[in-house]
Amino acid sequence: MSEEKISYLQSSELFRDLNAAEMAELDRVTAMTTCESRRIFYTPGETGEVLFVLKKGRVQLYRLSPDGKKFVLASLDADAVFGEMALVGQGMHNAFAEALEPCTLCVMTRREVEWLITRFPQVGLRLLEILGRRLTQVEARLEGFAFKTISARLAGLLLQLQRANFVEGYTHQDFAEMLGTYRETTTQTLNEFKAQGLIELHRKRIEIRDAARLRALADA
């Protein structure tokens, strides 16, 4: 088992309860793979037979309306799990999953996942925690669509995506798709935030200048 793979597996929330001997067992039934940006992992209606654990890169889950409008369900960073819904009773995927940049992933088939949960029940509990958290996030977004303004939703999104006071790698169109609005509306709102001293705008890079006021706006 390579040191790199050990590091990937040990850092995962899904496998954090396993000891060294159990990690060695896990290594024998899992595979690591890499892919380039824009790889489509699955599309709506496909039968789901694989669970993905993202170790490096970024993946987007989204749906397309009949007229081709894109709505982003989630933007996933390292350590996220996806593809799970088709493995836990849904049968088929209901969204697209696409790599936004080069990715490294741990890939497990349905049979391997079933073996893993039977052999290590604590992994099944971690998977339930991840599923529950994903559901809570979706419910929070739906509540935002129903009750919050675009400004409040965008403020919350920026705070969610920030790393060390910066949001990097996203275009105005990306934000619009995550908020379910138009790019022009997103650009206008970002410019308003800049004028108020809340953020500073750069190319695919936003600096958070006043997180406290953004939080107050997001919670309004």
Helical proportion, percent range = 40-55%
Main sheet: which strands, in order across? 1-8-3-6
Distance between the termini: 50 Å
Number of strands: 11
Strand pairing plus helix content: what structural class? alpha+beta
Round the Cα radius of gyration to an integer and report it: 19 Å
Give helix and strand order, one letter per element, not per position: HHEEEEEEEEHHHEHHEEH
Quote the beta fraction.
15-25%
The biggest sheet, with number of strands, parallel, antiparallel or mixed sense and barrel status, is: 4 strands, antiparallel
Q: How many helix segments?
A: 8
Mean pLDDT: 86
Instruction: Characterize the overall form.
Output: globular
SSE diagram, text form:
Layout: H1 3-11, H2 20-28, E1 31-35, E2 40-42, E3 50-56, E4 59-64, E5 70-76, E6 81-82, E7 96-99, E8 103-109, H3 110-119, H4 121-147, H5 150-161, E9 166-168, H6 172-179, H7 183-195, E10 199-202, E11 205-208, H8 211-219
Antiparallel strand pairs: 1-8, 2-7, 3-6, 3-8, 4-5, 4-7, 9-11, 10-11
Helix pairs in contact: 3-4, 5-8, 6-7
Describe the 3D structure.
By secondary structure, this protein is an alpha+beta fold. The protein is 44% helix and 24% strand. The chain has a 4-stranded antiparallel β-sheet with strand order 1-8-3-6. The protein has a 4-stranded antiparallel β-sheet with strand order 2-7-4-5. A 3-stranded antiparallel β-sheet has the order 9-11-10. A hairpin with a 2-residue loop joins strand 10 and strand 11 (205-208). Helix 3 (110-119) packs across helix 4 (121-147), helix 5 crosses helix 8 (211-219) and helix 6 (172-179) packs across helix 7 (183-195). The longest helix has 27 residues, at 121-147. The radius of gyration is 19 Å and the shape is globular. The N and C termini lie far apart (50 Å). The model has no long low-confidence stretch (mean pLDDT 86).
